[in-house]
Write a structure and sequence with these properties.
By secondary structure, the protein is mainly α. 71% of the residues lie in helices and 3% in strands. The protein has helices at residues 4-11, 21-33, 46-65, 72-84, 88-104, 111-123, 127-139, 146-158, 162-175, 182-194, 200-217, 231-243, 247-276, 281-287, 295-309, 314-325, 328-358, 365-383, 396-415, 426-451; strands at 219-222, 225-228, 385-387, 458-460. Helix 9 runs antiparallel to helix 10 (182-194) and helix 11 (200-217) runs antiparallel to helix 12. It is flat, with a radius of gyration of 30 Å.
Length: 462
């Protein structure tokens, strides 16, 4: 069987296996486990992935070419191999072959095989197949584990069958005593939001009911432990409120999420960071950035606030200040991250330039030029980190959001019956410019304040 046998002989040079179902199965084990199924999967090693993916596909083609009838055990090996390489098409082919075999024997797939198939299809994102298998589990009264439940819900959501997600969630979770994980709750909440009615008059009532559902589910008893919904699950609800222009509700849910995220998750992250890198203060401050509310969510709220209140921007400015700029730990963490990346990239450039310079004969004019490039790069490193604020800084999304909301209000006025007289006046445009300038100056002051004691060399770049 072509070069596959050569691969097997490397592990077992004494005997070349004959072309048979058993030899194919053994060769699959050799390729994936080195012949020992208790060892680490070789297919998980990136260096082997491409070779194994191609070889397993060749094995399947040779099996068909030599008309070898595979056993269920061999097909299970193929299923695992194709699943690991995320080969959607071949996972379907293996599934079809397994059905043919059990059908010929007038039997049904075992629970173990169905479980493996639903997992494989889920990994390969064959959502239709996952849903079919999930329905078979339900209709056949088979035990539905948490993993099977989550795969079924995720595929239904991916197929935008949000009503079905909501219908089966209480039934399956109660029947099979499944306590929802964060991942399951995220799927449910996203489906709740996406199933929102199209009629404007029903949106507010519906989203309020969703909010009530979330608040009731915030703390779920599980073996006397408290299970908290994380920001991943809560974020879709806030985004839905923003999408429908419901600023008050969006802000309320934002602060509910913030109270969860900046206490429970922050404490957990703090503990994990202390365990991973004890005593490394700068790295701890860098990693602590993850405990703050997502900047994209803040920017969404800023844009909505700016749009609803323009030309008055006081609320948007105040929110930007309190949630970003005045959180000095956040500002410091962001700039420590940026400085670390900047320094690493600069040192790589210097190393590369030095290699080029050393490869050129010293008498050559090109060597002088190469040395000058190295000196320039070193000088830039000594000068320190170039710091930018405003639209060119790390919080540019917030400035863009304020400006974007303001501009949307302007465009809405222009579109309303063609009344050009309602366009923002020069004084209102100047007011926007003044607020942006004020925020940039404040950001500059805070950056200087937090970087001063950090011993980072920097300069403000206009």
């Amino acid at each position: 069987m072509r070069k596959e046998y050569d691969a097997a002989v490397q592990f077992n040079p004494e005997a070349k296996p004959p072309i048979s179902d058993e030899s194919i199965r053994n060769l699959l084990a050799v390729l994936m486990y080195g012949g020992n199924q208790n060892s680490v999967l070789l297919i998980d090693n990136v260096a082997h992935m491409r070779y194994i993916k191609e070889t397993v596909r060749n094995l399947w083609e040779d099996m068909e070419k030599f008309a070898i009838s595979p056993s269920l055990e061999t097909l299970r090996g193929f299923l695992e191999a194709f699943c690991r390489s995320k080969n959607k098409k071949m996972v379907k082919s293996v599934h079809e072959s397994m059905i043919e075999i059990v059908g010929a024997q007038k039997q049904k797939l075992s629970y173990r095989d169905r479980e493996a198939l639903i997992c494989a299809h889920a990994i390969c994102e064959n959502h239709e197949e996952v849903v079919k298998l999930f329905d078979e589990f339900d209709q056949s009264k088979l035990k539905i584990t948490r993993a099977i439940f989550e795969n079924g819900l995720r595929s239904l959501a991916a197929l935008e069958k949000h009503s079905r997600v909501l219908n089966i969630f209480p039934k399956i979770s109660l029947t099979h005593l499944i306590c929802p994980t964060n991942d399951i709750l995220e799927i449910i909440l996203t489906s709740l939001v996406k199933a929102c009615p199209k009629q404007d008059q029903n949106i507010r009532i519906y989203l309020k009911n969703v909010t009530d559902f979330v608040n009731k589910t915030l703390k779920i008893k599980r073996n006397n432990d408290v299970h908290i919904i994380t920001r991943r699950a809560y974020k879709p609800l806030i985004e839905a409120y923003i999408r429908y222009g419901m600023r008050k509700q969006a802000l309320h849910e934002y602060f509910v999420l913030k109270s969860i995220f900046e206490t429970d998750e922050a404490a957990k992250i703090n503990t994990e960071i202390q365990e991973i890198i004890p005593g490394t203060e700068i790295h701890r401050k860098i990693l602590m950035e993850v405990r703050f509310m997502p900047l994209s969510l803040i920017a969404n709220i800023l844009e909505l606030t700016s749009f609803l209140s323009a030309p008055d921007l006081s609320e948007a400015v105040s929110f930007f200040e309190s949630e970003v700029l005045l959180k000095k730990d956040r500002v410091l963490s962001r700039w420590l991250t940026l400085e670390k990346k900047w320094r690493e990239n600069h040192e790589l450039k210097i190393t590369s330039a030095e290699k080029v310079a050393n490869s050129i004969p010293r008498q050559s004019p090109r060597h002088v030029e190469a040395v000058e490039i190295v000196d320039t790069l070193r000088g830039a490193l000594d000068d320190g980190l170039p710091v930018r604020v405003g639209l060119n800084g790390p919080f540019s999304a917030c400035y863009i959001a304020i400006y974007g909301g303001f501009r949307m209000k302007l465009e809405k006025r222009l579109a309303a019956d063609g009344k050009i007289t309602d366009v923002f006046s020069v004084s209102e445009i100047n007011y926007l410019a003044e607020k942006i300038k004020y925020l940039m100056n404040l950001e500059r002051e805070i950056v200087a304040e937090v970087l001063q004691p950090s011993q980072i060399i920097y300069f403000f770049e206009e």
